[in-house]
């Protein structure tokens, strides 16, 4: 399998197509997945406009790029001539603009449907997983871009190398290649047709959608059935139900488990970076440098490099790209990283919002900075996730030396009786634990000597990063 042309590309001609589109309207344009698609349409000369609940750094950037965005649910401000209207399940069913478009028979499509249509006729590398998928997909897309192979990338995070979650560069590949973050929420990834599919993890999540962990796993198995004939599945080797996953070809990968076809060995830490060798399906690369924290990112690198090898990218180009990969915003992102030998505070920010993500985050930080007291500020995301996983959250947060919980970020949900951050705090065994409002947190931090601080969560905790950095400095 030397390049994208060596995997067959079966097009589903029965699906509706995106043709003759001159204007697109987005309901929830500031979402990380929505904004990538909005940027795609803008890149091909389509007029893009939309609504979001609040202005953010991302929406302001979209406005600078030429999109018309407003922040009030107001029919008078919408594009009534839009050819398609793209929305997400996070938009409330009583949303005035959404219901206007419904009542007027607009062409309404979910974000996942549009992404499926955009990639209907391309060679697709689709990365799925309850965690790890953003970093892995960004790393794959970066290797393809940096090496000159080229790709179109739809990412679920802002790639630090490029400051965006979307780009398109054809490069020297023989056909158009798309790298797509495959989101399991609302079964969105079942709209995609992978040539290469990656599954990084399959921990229980989104039980508000799936009901049970088995149902969620069933969806991942259905995702593998979407792999095209002759296609490849690259799967983490310790996942349950691997035998039920469908693909003509499979490669199991791991961090350091030599039983996996693709794995790392001879791992060492050098000046805050990882250096390791990699074996992938019998192919060996030596002395790979990864300038990112966390053993989980070695796993992500193994998956990404395996894709690159399968596409025929030269070893030296792969190693140079990996060494130059700056990561993804809010994925083990160093906000403060003092020089070796100093005692200034280390500050890491991360999007982690699931217990297993938090476990990996805390353990990785403690491994890289042994001897430092580890403090974490965590903002739970969703009432339903907090209710379902409170015990697991408590156990993982106890891995830190001290923990501060912010109130739950509700996102799309209404409050649930008896569900608050207190539910997690009461299950924690550690003595050094608190619940604080944002304003109180900043005052509290200003009075303490912090050695290693982690901020984590998928809500709006990122708005605290700049003031926390200022306090720690």
Placed side by side, the strands forming the largest sheet appear as 8-7-9-6-10-11-12
Helix content: 25-40%
* Proportion of residues in β-strands: 15-25%
Q: Give Rg in angstroms.
A: 22 Å
Report the strand count: 21
- The shape is globular
Mean pLDDT: 91
Question: What oligomerization state is this entry in?
Answer: single chain
- The number of helical elements comes to 14
Measured between the Cα atoms of the first and last residue, the distance is: 50 Å
Low-confidence stretches: 5-15
**Which secondary-structure class do the elements indicate?**
alpha/beta
- Summarize the main sheet: 7 strands, mixed
Descriptive notes:
The chain has 473 residues and is an alpha/beta fold. The protein contains 14 helices and 21 strands. A 7-stranded mixed beta sheet has the order 8-7-9-6-10-11-12, with helices on both faces. It has a 6-stranded mixed beta sheet with strand order 16-17-21-18-19-20, with helices on both faces. Strands 3-2-1-4-5 form a 5-stranded parallel beta sheet, sandwiched between helices. The relative contact order is 0.09.
Based on the model shown, name its key terms.
473 residues; alpha/beta; 7-stranded mixed sheet; 6-stranded mixed sheet; 21 strands; globular
Summarize the structure.
By secondary structure, the protein is of the alpha/beta class. Helices cover 30% and strands 24% of the residues. The strands form four sheets. It has a seven-stranded mixed sheet, with helices on both faces. A six-stranded mixed sheet has the order 16-17-21-18-19-20, with helices on both faces.
């Amino acid at each position: 399998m030397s390049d994208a042309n060596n995997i067959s590309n079966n097009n589903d001609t029965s699906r509706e197509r995106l043709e003759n589109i001159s204007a697109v309207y987005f309901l929830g344009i500031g979402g990380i997945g929505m904004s990538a698609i909005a940027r795609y349409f803008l890149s091909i000369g389509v007029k893009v406009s939309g609504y979001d609940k609040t202005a953010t750094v991302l929406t302001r950037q979209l406005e600078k790029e030429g999109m018309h965005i407003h922040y009030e649910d107001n029919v008078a401000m919408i594009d009534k001539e839009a050819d398609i209207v793209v929305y997400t399940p996070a938009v409330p069913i009583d949303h005035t603009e959404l219901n206007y478009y419904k009542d007027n028979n607009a062409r309404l499509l979910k974000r996942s449907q549009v992404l499926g249509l955009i990639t209907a006729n391309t060679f697709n590398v689709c990365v799925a997983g309850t965690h790890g998928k953003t970093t892995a997909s960004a790393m794959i897309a970066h290797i393809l871009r940096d090496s000159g192979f080229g790709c179109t990338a739809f990412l679920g995070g802002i790639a630090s190398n490029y400051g965006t979650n979307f780009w398109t560069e054809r490069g020297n590949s023989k056909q158009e290649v798309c790298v797509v973050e495959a989101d399991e929420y609302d079964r969105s990834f079942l709209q995609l047709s992978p040539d290469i599919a990656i599954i990084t993890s399959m921990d229980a999540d989104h039980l508000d959608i799936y009901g049970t962990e088995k149902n969620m796993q069933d969806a991942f198995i259905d995702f593998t059935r979407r792999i095209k004939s002759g296609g490849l599945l690259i799967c983490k080797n310790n996942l349950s139900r691997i035998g039920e996953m469908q693909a003509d070809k499979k490669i199991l990968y791991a961090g350091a488990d030599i039983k996996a076809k693709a794995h790392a060995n001879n791992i060492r830490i050098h000046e805050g970076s990882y250096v390791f060798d990699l074996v992938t399906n019998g192919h060996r690369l030596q002395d790979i440098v990864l300038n990112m924290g966390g053993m989980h990112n070695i796993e992500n690198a193994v998956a990404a490099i395996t894709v690159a090898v399968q596409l025929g990218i030269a070893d030296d180009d792969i190693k140079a790209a990996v060494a130059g990969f700056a990561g993804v915003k809010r994925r083990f992102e160093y906000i403060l990283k003092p020089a070796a030998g100093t005692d200034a505070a280390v500050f890491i920010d991360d999007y982690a919002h699931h217990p297993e993500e938090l476990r990996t985050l805390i353990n990785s930080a403690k491994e890289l900075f042994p001897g430092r007291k580890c403090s974490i500020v965590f903002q739970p995301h969703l009432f339903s996730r907090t209710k379902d996983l409170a015990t697991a959250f408590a156990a993982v947060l106890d891995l830190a030396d001290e923990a501060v919980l912010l109130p739950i970020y509700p996102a799309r949900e209404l409050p649930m009786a008896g569900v608050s951050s207190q539910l997690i705090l009461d299950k924690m065994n550690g003595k050094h634990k608190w619940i604080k409002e944002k304003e109180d947190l900043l005052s509290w931090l200003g009075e303490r000597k912090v050695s290693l601080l982690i901020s984590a969560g998928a809500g709006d905790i990122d708005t605290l990063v700049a003031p926390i950095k200022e306090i720690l400095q």
